[in-house]
Amino acid sequence: MSSKILACDFEVFGVVQGVFFRKYTQKQANSLGIRGWCMNTHGGTVKGQLEGEEKPFNEMKHWLQTKGSPSSRIEKAVFNVPKELSSYSFKDFSIRR
C-alpha cells in the first residue's frame, strides 16, 4: 500500500520574482517527486499547487518557507489545508506562464 497523496495550494511572498525562484522550485519538486505547478503573479508573488506523498510533501513545504532560490528572500509562505487525493492530478511539476 502506498502512502497517501496530499495536495495543497501555496503562495510565497517576498523577493521571489526575477531570482529564478520558479526554476529552483521545479528542480526541488522534481528531486522530491512532487507534482504540480507554480507561476508568477501580478502581485509579485509565486503561487502554485503541490501534490505528493506526506514526507516529501512536507519537505517541499518547508523548502518553500525557508529556502527558495539562492537570491530569493522569502517573507512568508501561505498554504491552504492539505487534502488527500486518491490519485495524482498532474504528471510532473511545471512552470506556468
Low-confidence stretches: none
Mean pLDDT: 96
Task: Let me know the number of strands.
Answer: 6
Which descriptor suits the 3D outline? Answer: globular
Number of helices: 2
Range of strand content: 35-45%
| Helix coverage percent | 25-40%
Largest sheet: 6 strands, mixed
What integer value in Å does the Rg equal?
Answer: 12 Å
Q: Structural class of the helix and strand makeup?
A: alpha+beta
Helix and strand run = EHEEHEEE
Supply database-style keywords:
97 residues, 6 strands, 26% helix
How would you portray this structure in words?
It is built from two helices and six strands. It is α+β, with helices and mostly antiparallel strands and 97 residues long. Strands 1, 2, 3, 4, 5 and 6 form a six-stranded mixed β-sheet that branches. The chain is globular. The mean pLDDT is 96.
